[in-house]
Specification:
The chain is mostly helical. It has a domain of 44 residues. The chain has three helices and no strands. It is elongated and about 65 Å long.
């Protein structure tokens, strides 16, 4: 486990101490958990994007067919 130092305003520090106490944890644990969740979220998004972009595009219509007009699709 590595130690890091951060600087926050006094009102943020006060809020963090109260929040951590209410949730029976430490500010260090709270920040560590939050950063871990962010890291997992970003990694998951990157993997999903790579998987999506690695696939070949698919034609949505056959050869010479034209897409329907908007008015036809949304007849009112």
């Amino acid at each position: 486990m590595r130690n890091i130092t951060i600087s926050v305003s006094e009102d943020v520090a006060r809020w963090a101490r109260v929040y951590a106490a209410e949730h029976e944890t430490s500010i260090s644990r709270m920040l560590s958990d939050t950063l871990r969740e962010k890291m997992a979220s970003d990694s998951s998004y990157a993997r999903s994007m790579e998987r999506f972009l690695s696939k070949n595009p698919v034609n949505l219509r056959d050869g010479g067919e034209h897409y329907p007009d908007r008015d036809v699709i949304h007849e009112r």
